Amino acid sequence: MAAAASSLLSAPSSSCSSGHRRASAFPFRFPSSVSLTSSSSFSTISSSFPSMFPLPGRASAPAATASTAFSVSASGEKKKVLIVNTNSGGHAVIGFYLAKELLGAGHEVTVLTVGEESSDKMKKPPFTRFSELVSAGGCTVWGNPADVGKIVGGAAFDVVLDNNGKDLDTVRPVADWAKGAGVKQFLFISSAGIYKTSDEVPHVEGDPVKADASHVAVEKYIEELSFSSWAVFRPQYMIGSGNNKDCEEWFFDRIVRDRPVPIPGSGMQLTNISHVRDLSSMLALAVDNPTAASGNIFNCVSDRAVTFIGLVKLCAQAAGREAKIVYYDPKAVGVDAKKAFPFRNMHFYAEPRAAKVFLGWSSSTNLPVDLKERFDEYVSIGRDKKEIKLDVDDKILESLKVPVSA
Amino acid sequence: MRGGHGGGAESPVNVTPAISPPRTLQLPPQLLNPPHFTVATHSREAGKPWLEGGPREEQRVAAAAAEAVMASLVAVQPRLQPSPRFSLFPSSVSDFHGASLSCPVQAKRKTWGSRGTLQVTASSSTKKILIMGGTRFIGVFLSRLLVKDGHQVTLFTRGKSPVTKQLPGESDQDYADFSSKVLHLKGDRQDFEFVKKSLAAEGFDVVYDINGREAVEVEPILDALPNLEQFIYCSSAGVYLKSDLLPHFETDAVDPKSRHKGKLETESLLDSKGVNWTSIRPVYIYGPLNYNPVEEWFFHRLKAGRPIPIPNSGVQITQLGHVKDLANAFVKVLGHPKASKQVFNISGSKYVSFDGLAKACAKAAGFPEPEIVHYNPKEFDFGKKKAFPFRDQHFFASIEKATWELGWTPEFDLVEGLADSYNLDFGRGTYRKEADFSTDDIILDKSLVLQK
Hints:
The complex is a heterodimer of chains A (about 400) and B (about 450). Chain A is α/β, with parallel strands linked by helices.
């Protein structure tokens, strides 16, 4: 990845080279010749809604085939999409997968990553793989999302996805700019963490959310801006190559070293672990079907929950080894459950009902298969041999008087 | 007592009840209002900001939903406000449908996704329908719906209990109408010869098998009715193989060794015979007249002011489905083109933890929040007694297939449904099993209880 100034008014960055690029002072895009107000192609999609409602299958087919009859109405309609992407954390990988998927479908994609291209954060996946986006014809730029208008110059976009902000201060400038620039569809990656907990599961779109959660204010703000089409997506935990934050690796780390796996509570807690391609396929369907998607909240998750115990078993199966679980009470041991375990210590389980109904989306996450693939990559990059410290584990095991070496 | 043994088939008998109807209450108007359901992606709670409800949002979403979901073969009505008569039950009969009040329970929200509550009165023609069973629980509600729809309904039972009885909240008029129309075929379904002869002699268009357990029981029925239009079977979600990945979908692996393998074998038999079959897999069924002590188990303890002993962590997730919703689903599949040779999970829209269920029962019945005591079942020997009415594991199934394919949705959410059951049954002093707190006392007396 060639170092480049984050200001795009300087020499063209190689991270934007593509066959589509024309000689221009603007390194990644020249202003669209179609004025936004006359961009009528977008609005004509809305009337032609497919007459057959397909039953989303239970197939484990990859995301590419998750496009159903719903995309028929929008086929051929290529969009200019801007993804504002966080530079770290669990959600970072979403923008990467979506960009790849949209580029593969022929859309024009620009990814604006927060911060500087030269930052240390860019040394981690998925950013280390951004060349894949470029060679697929995408553009990658860096900067402060608050300056998005300046960064993209006069470029016009049909769709903007904010996969960065968690609060209004961060998203408002992007949303305001998009509205002013005539962006037709605004999508926001929120979080399923904003749902109020309940004895009844799962979280379903429409369920009450925590009023003080910062994402909530953002969702409301976006709705009130009245884009032609807007939608919010609430994800949970993801696995997938290119992830920025460990998920299944936490389990592999212990299993492959024959260390006990400490599980808080009963281990019966349910959670959603989705392959990130489920999220990108859902987002891509929304891009292709803006009318169907509009005004909706989508739980951006696979359609199966797994227990903590179940996940350990599946990871062990993927690793071809046995796993030993030890159960502990975080309070009794004196550890912060948030630091000791990668998932919320409770049922945290949402179902993607809206996506199935409104987008004809279907899940392709297949944990047994996907975890095997993840484990193979884990080993191939040598993580199984890496020296790691498991201080919190040690503390837990010590308090339970469990021998560390199996 | 078998009828028609050795001779010709016994003619169906029109039975009128000999017992006097139980007292009927005039239910207050609130109880007559069906629960409110919308397609809102935001829940409805009046007066709250949009994220927690709001008519504008739900109207827009309902419209979008209507647009989006329009085209399954079942028409969907865009519903911007609750319809006055939400279910098939006529208003007087819907007395026992009314869920909302008498307890401080908000009739809230409900559906997601497909609206499809249009009740297609299946096919314009009247069918001659046989229900195997029909006098205890599911069939009691199902038979009424079918009779109301104009079908000729015969119940096949041994006659051990009255063929019909007036339901709590059912008006005299409705009951008289129903009981004058429903027919009875008296016999023992284990007498396969009799089953075959009597059914062949009568001829039926459709069979609902509500109480069948083993495949052999179904064979004489199929043999007797070669022109059967549809065989609708009450199976069970208990056939699913236990899994770490939930919910169960209809395509999931089944367990050939489960306690419910008879149901599984019946489904296989049906599929092998070429008959047009439909199989319904409920999870835990609840509602007034439940003979399985599901909600009753909690109500006994709440009424007695006793703590509720729950095994292990109490976070195990289960799922309850109201019997009236189940009955509606059974009616939905009648003659439905998308039901042919299909299996459907039928239950509530959401799932609940054991601890949550205890609290929901209290809320529904107007009791204070209960004290819950967790215990390790391995530390006790209860002999043959069941210390808790649910299987000690996660157990729930997705109903999405039924909502899409059939346009059916459950009307009751958990607390509303439990309130309906309480108001019409336990709360009136009726129940099936006497309270038995012996296992509770074993648990509570022992000092070794998990505190949480």
